[in-house]
Amino acid sequence: MKLKIEKLKNNTLQKLIYKNFLTSSLIPIFAIELLLIILYFGVSYYISHKSQETLSSQAKNSLMEISKRESESINKQFEEVSRVAEIMRDDHERFFNTESACVLPNGEVELKVHENGALYKSKDNGGSSIYYSTRTKITKKELHKAKCTEVMDPLLKSVVKHNPMITQAYFNSYDDFNRIYPYMEDAPSQYGPTYIWRTTIFTI
Fold first, then answer.
1. How many Å apart are CA 198 and CA 204, to the nearest integer?
2. Concatenated DSSP letters for 73-123?
3. Which of 168, 189, 166 is nearest to 179 (CA)?
4. Residue 134 phi/psi, 5° resolution?
5. 52-75 tens-digit pLDDT
6. Beta partners for 171?
C-alpha cells in the first residue's frame, strides 16, 4: 500500500516538474522563436520596401538626368539647324539682290513642260530638281528664275551633306516655284499640276 502511495506521489511529482518545465522553459522559448520569426519577416519586408523606394527614386533621378541631357542635345541640334536656315536665307537674299548674274554651277539646265502642265528639270545634272506649278504663267521671267537659281545648288548640297539631321534642302517662292535637293525624279508626277508651297527650307 505504501509502495503504491509512494509511486503515485512520484508520478504526480514528475508531472508537476514536467508541467512546470513546460511553463517556465519551453513556452518562453517558443514565444521568443515566434517573435524572432515575426521580427525576421518584418525586417525583411521593411528592407525590401526601402530598397524598392530607393531604386525607384534612383531610377526617377536617372531618367530626369537623361531627359535633361537629351533635351539639351536636341536644343543644340535645332540651334544649329536654325543657324543653317539663316545662312540659306542670306544666300537667297544675295541671289535676288544680284539676279542679273546668272551662274550655272552644274552646267546647262534642261527644262520641259510636263504632260500635266508643270515646268520641271527633265535631267539630273548633279544638282537639285525644279518644279513650277501650273498656277503660275511661265514667261521669260519665270524661265530666268528657274535657270539662274541653279547658283543655290552648291549650298543646298553642302547643307544636306554636312548636317545628318537634314535630309532635304529646298527653296520655295511665292509663285509656287520649288527647287529641291537631292534631285527628285519626275517631280510633276509626285507633286501634281499644282502645289502650294510652305516657306520651309529643309526637311529634318
1. 15
2. HHHHHHHHHHHHHHHHHHHHHHHHHTTT----TT----EEE-TTS-EEE-S
3. 168
4. -70, -10
5. 878 777 778 777 888 788 788 778
6. 179
Cβ-based burial of 186 (10 A; exposed 0-12, middle 13-18, buried ≥19): exposed
Q: What is the 3-state secondary structure (H, E, C) of 53-73?
A: HHHHHHHHHHHHHHHHHHHHH
Look at strands 111-113 and 129-132 and give their pairing.
Answer: unpaired
Q: What is the pTM of this model?
A: 0.63
Among 72, 84, 68, 89, which residue's Cα sits nearest to residue 164? Answer: 84
pLDDT digits (tens, 9 = 90+) for 159-193: 999 888 888 998 998 889 999 999 998 889 988 88
Measured CA to CA, the distance from residue 22 to residue 145 in angstroms comes to 110
With CA atoms as reference, report the closest residue to 95 among 143, 145, 130, 156. Answer: 145
163 Cβ contact list (under 8 Å, min separation 6): 80, 81, 84
For residue 137, give the amino acid letter.
Answer: K
- Strand, helix or coil at 20? helix
